[in-house]
Amino acid sequence: MKNSAIELQSLFARVEKLESQNRRWKLASALLSLFGVAFLLMGAKPADSFDKQVIRAGTIEAQQFLLKDEDGHVYARLSLNATGRTVQLNGRVYVVPTQKLPSEPGLQFYDDKGNVVWTAPSRPELMTVR
To answer: Do both 4 and 42 map to the same domain?
Structure first.
């Protein structure tokens, strides 16, 4: 009888140990499967981030467009009344028109000193619309 009681106690201890190991394996497998599903869902979803320097728009309206470097130096200008020269005052760049022509579209490129290097159209003229 004493021998069977000892065997029963050792059998009970072994069963308890197996049950605790079984609980740990169930928890580990549940966590692994949860992480696997999460990674699959993250891979299937498109990224939410976008480049903050890029503005996407269908239409942009402006009276003029200036092409500047990081220091604020103007290199090109697309605008109406496009004849002009760039001037720097107090670290800011201004475009001063040399002629005031009504609604003359043009493109100008400037050198490092703010002088006009190239202009399109090269001279102000009226053109008929075809």
So the answer is: yes
Give the type of residue at 4. S
Query: 3-state SS string over 29-59?
Result: HHHHHHHHHHHHHHHHCCCCCCCCCCCCCCC
| Separation between Cα atoms, residue 63 and residue 61, nearest integer Å | 7
Q: What pLDDT digit, counting tens, does each position of 85-96 carry?
A: 566 666 666 666
Cis, peptide link before residue 121, omega less than 30° from 0: yes
Check: CB of residue 101 under 8 Å from CB of residue 81: yes
* 88 belongs to a structural domain: yes
pTM as predicted: 0.40
Q: Work out the number of other CB atoms within 10 angstroms of the CB of residue 66.
A: 16
Give the span between the Cα atoms of 28 and 22, in whole angstroms.
10
Q: Which uninterrupted H or E stretch holds 116?
A: strand 116-120
- The single-letter DSSP state of residue 122 is S
Q: Is residue 75 part of a domain?
A: yes
Average pLDDT over residues 6-27: 93
Q: Are 72 and 100 found together in one domain?
A: yes
Q: What's the structural domain count of the chain?
A: 2
